[in-house]
């Protein structure tokens, strides 16, 4: 038997999922994260998962890892001191940035502008210039380059970034500066913009390259350290890191281009959701990942997450391909409060975190949180994980009662219901950002709910969105690790063209795409994949002449040479997407700005577990009842053990389904059908009856 490991490191816990590739049987472990050295928590969790499976670490094959090392370096401001080399006259490129200020009118008055990742005193200019067409306007002054780099050597920088004007059109000057830097600043990691982001727009290219340099030393140390520890422990398989776009890259490539890892964690959840939804027979869905502090949502169509061209972490916005994930400050630890000015109940974005946590945890927390509301409502039993976790209902009641007193509500249960409803509305707003505001009707999609808190709110969000069924996967608290273990290798190549359609022939574009495909395949071939195992997808960023933004459009290379193919098909696809997004078209000429090719390896041959079939009666899994507050009054809800439910069982609400890492709430007039894949499919009772046990 062969085993594959998925590892997801979060801020509080490290999740490990060990998968028997032949049978699909999974073994999981959850251990506290170790922020000072994440590899400590990872190795501890791997050992626990292997013990559960009864195997040694030498039996483990490939290790796939979603990491927050790069993300945390940005959020905590603990990256490297970065030196920046620019073209003469562009020293303030990061300070000038873009003329966008968040907030409303006069928002600039109170907006604290974030400090650039490369300080002005660590930024130098060099003489030499490339034109927008790639021609050399002014030769590179190598003596000036050496003088400037000598200055940076005296600044004690820890990483170097090089971003020269128009280097996307001709990288020769940047490459020469990098070679001189290897002599003047030996052993210093160097990020070159023409390699990190070979696209136009000097600010976006520069800030992305600087961000890459900022996190590079920390990511390189971590991947090298983890790789060595895995090898020392006897793990013979390769170590791969999850990219922000949901694909895998080798540990070495991740260390060279860590800016592509900034959304590694959330991307794992979306790819895991795609896996479990496919097993249940669904390809179009909204993903909903609710943790302790925040909720991440995304939209998946035809089994593929929507991909964006920007990645945002904290105040930093870089140009890097990533799953289009939106985040809202709503989680189990979100604090409810009543501002004196408005006297209206609010929930979040402040969070109680893990320490002291919700009042129900008994760790000294006193402020009312979403978790406390769920305890008061009866949705969270006071004994969880087989009795290993006990929640303090009296402490939760006391905390939530402060909200009842501040709002003149007649009971803590009514106040808790208000907290529950408001946090659901907050998460609905995030779901609308990836659906309605992108031109999609959520009623055309299923809803996959996961994370530790997601299944408690999933049924309610299904009612709000009309997205059915609501799919609650097995082990929803470790789904990100499942995504890491079931995704595939990926790399991309990109090139800026900047040509109007009238100046570009079909043959020219086809040749560009084939060249990019060869570039994208190269890294996967170096990793040992066969040419016949690699598939390539193509896309182009298009706009109307005069527009300041582009819209990505997929390119069907198979139909490119057919009737209605080529540039004509791209024009039609862009017009359709533009009308879907903005409800209008322009008469302006179309322009192609950027083209890219994405090479993807085969998905791992991981078998899917299939539950034993049974009838609709779930009573063998019933372990008791719980008094809950629903729809304005008390009701008795049956409580079921998730691991005792069988395929075909139908759990009718109100009901609570408990498991090691999460709890699922089924509301009245709804039913959860157990799919053979192990997922719970929640629908209104009439729909559940129509669908039976079918996914």
UniProtKB/TrEMBL annotation:
UniProt superkingdom: Bacteria
Domain (Acetophenone carboxylase-like C-terminal): residue spans on this chain: 509-673
Signal peptide (from-to): none
Domain Hydantoinase/oxoprolinase N-terminal: 4-184
GO MF term list: 5-oxoprolinase (ATP-hydrolyzing) activity
Record InterPro entries: ACX-like_C (IPR049517), ATPase_NBD (IPR043129), Hydant_A_N (IPR008040), Hydantoinase_A (IPR002821), Oxoprolinase-like (IPR045079)
One GO CC term on file: cytosol
Residue ranges of domain Hydantoinase A/oxoprolinase in the record: 205-487
GO biological process terms held by the UniProt record: glutathione metabolic process
Protein name: N-methylhydantoinase A
Organism: Mumia flava
